[in-house]
Design goal:
The complex is a heterodimer of chains A (115) and B (112). Chain A contains no helices and eleven strands. With 115 residues, chain A is mainly β. Helices cover 0% and strands 56% of the residues of chain B. Chain B is built from no helices and eleven strands. In chain B, strands 2, 4, 5, 6, 9, 10 and 11 form a seven-stranded mixed β-sheet that branches. In chain B, strands 1-3-8-7 form a four-stranded antiparallel β-sheet, with no helix packed on it. Chain B is globular, with a radius of gyration of 13 Å. The chains are: A mainly beta (115), B mainly beta (112). At the A-B interface, strand 4, strand 5, strand 9 and strand 10 of A face strand 4, strand 5 and strand 10 of B.
């Protein structure tokens, strides 16, 4: 089955700086890589995702890069703001029978953006 | 769209009591997932359903845990009897035709 490793577990940056969170996965069949943001007292919310047929995807200040050969993908947040402070999770699918993949999550990264 | 709706938001119970968590997925979604979140183990998948049928329950920790999905708009996760180590946040999530997974706000369970 899929195993997802996420680093770092905590990250503190100054407002305006960039933040990078990295994940590795084990299942070479994985083809979809989402990132979730979880604010205190709320459920994880999808912020960006990438499919395996592209190497990079951007959405305003957020970007995700994928290296299928090395089986790792990263979340990049530029011009960080205090409201970016949250826990971020990466995930990858583990495919069972019937082509109905279940998402396996990394351990999470607590991002703190200092004003 | 109201999103995934979970109830209750908070549940405090005593060890040995039965606990039932409820979930209403997003209308039209055909896959439903139950996750448990703890500091030590992060987000763990307990069980998921596809078209109301349980597909993979390998994450269910013990026989004390059971889940049902009697129809496309409702699912329950039951713990009987509950134990203090079951204390966690339990999330329900649903997915439609694509890959995007949408989470509810969770149920914070405390077993004393």
């Amino acid at each position: 089955g899929e195993n997802v490793e996420q680093h770092p577990s905590t990250l503190s940056v100054q407002e305006g700086d960039s933040a990078v969170i990295k994940c590795t996965y084990s299942d070479s069949a994985s083809n979809y890589f989402p990132w979730y943001k979880q604010e205190l007292g709320k459920g994880p919310q999808l912020i960006i995702d990438i499919r395996s047929n592209v190497g990079e995807k951007k959405d305003q200040r957020i970007a995700v890069t994928l290296n299928k050969t090395a089986k790792h993908f990263s979340l990049h947040i530029t011009e960080t703001q205090p409201e970016d402070s949250a826990v971020y999770f990466c995930a990858a699918p583990s495919w069972g029978s019937g082509n109905t993949g279940k998402l396996i999550f990394g351990q999470g990264t607590t991002l703190q953006v200092k004003p | 769209d109201a999103g995934v709706i979970q109830s209750p938001r908070h549940e405090v119970t005593e060890m040995g009591q039965e606990v039932t968590l409820r979930c209403k997925p997003i209308s039209g979604h055909n896959s439903l997932f139950w996750y448990r979140q703890t500091m030590m183990r992060g987000l763990e998948l307990l069980i998921y359903f596809n078209n109301n049928v349980p597909i993979d329950d390998s994450g269910m920790p013990e026989d004390r845990f059971s889940a049902k999905m009697p129809n496309a708009s409702f699912s329950t996760l039951k713990i009987q009897p509950s134990e203090p180590r079951d204390s966690a946040v339990y999330f329900c999530a649903s997915r439609g035709a694509g890959e995007k997974l949408f989470f509810g706000s969770g149920t914070q369970l405390s077993v004393l």
